[in-house]
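User: If only I could read backbone structure tokens as easily as an amino acid sequence. Those tokens are not coordinates but codes from a learned vocabulary of shapes. Could you go through the record with me and say what the backbone is doing? Here is the record:
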Amino acid sequence: MIAQRERSYKILLFIADIFSITATFHIAVFTRFNLAKSLFERQGTFSEHMHLIPYAIVIWLIAYRFSGLYNSTLKGSEEFLALIKGSIVGILLAMAVLFFYREVSYSRALVLLFAMLAVAGGIFSRMLFRWIRHQILKGSQSLSRLLIVGRNTLGITLADELARRPIGYEVVGFLDDSPASDHALPIVGRLDELGKVIREKSINEVWIALKDTPRDTVKQLVEICLNAKISWRIVPDLYEVMLDWMRIDNLAGIPLIGIKRSNIIGLNVWIKRIVDIIISFLLIVLAGAPMGIIALLIKIISPGPVLFLQKRVGQNGRRFTFLKFRTMHEGASRLGHKDFTEKWIKGEVESDKEKNEPVVYKIKDDPRIIPYIGKFMRRFSVDELPQFFNVFRGDMSMVGPRPALPYEVENYQEWHLRRLETKPGITGLWQVNGRNLLSFEEMVKLDIYYIENWSLWSDFNILLKTFWAVVGYKAY
């Protein structure tokens, strides 16, 4: 049912994009050859370019599909970035097609104008499409009113995911014996009030997402749904254990459940490596002079080596020498960090997210920090610059899981080792999604999600967010 709704939604969105591209192309042609014709050299007429509409539709739909614009979980900002990416890909595809098919005469200014208008047109058409669809569903009472039984991690995940997927569900709230909820959706009743809530809230469907609940209780809830003649679903405990990690295949109607594997395999490994080499080389060239100045200041202010060398654990457990500018006095003890890290991995240290107090080992006015420049280097992550050489050499990647220390790995559970399936990165998904406010388990889950869902676009997005995090005083 959910898959069918998502498929229908994507088909309708596909049709909406066809109308949007067609309308946008008409506007671009009219603007180029009527409103702004005096700004360009004459190259064809309005009517001569209208036959290019089928080409534009096919090319831009391919570009949109490649850019992930038919992923129903895209947020507003993500969709905007995907539209920009789609237009860039569309320009490249159009140039390639028109280069080989030289019988077509076209205006380059028209292509660029259309690409820019396509972004605005795509945003407008998709907002309009969703609004019209919502009004139709609301007016026809086709929007299924859903009740989630269980306000736990799984129930909240389901509610949040449905909020991101406009597939015809209206989540009314949670049913739970806990009286309080910090979620936007309310708790509308206790477990023993299911029948009453179904009647009063006009519920069409119930999803039971309870953990460690006796079978008799679940059976009673299902019987209430059956008596009320409404649809119901049960989410097994297995999903709670392997949330977001499962891959379900189907063979002759038999479901096969397995674990998702890394997406950084085959050709993707080479693509990621080539991009790493290019970016790290450019950054080494650009940051060469600043790194030289920093090295000189460290040498003048604090006796000892310029670089802090440390053994880290990389891909598949291979150890390598990790490079950083030294921010502490030579010989400073780091035993406290080791003790803290071991407790953090074991879940014995948690952040206070309400007070925005991070999980991180820090000492106020730490005397071990090099005066004048130590705090500056840490504040702006300047001490990380030598890691560009780690990336260029192949020990690390620009984006990936945080490089682990050997004594960290010694405390890993078996599932934690999945974060070693790819090269560690200078930055990663956890740095731009909470960083030191996250628990170790949350950090590992983000690393695994990154590995399983890697794309070149996701790397560029993380790098851009990292830049703003550093500039915006959110690096630590």
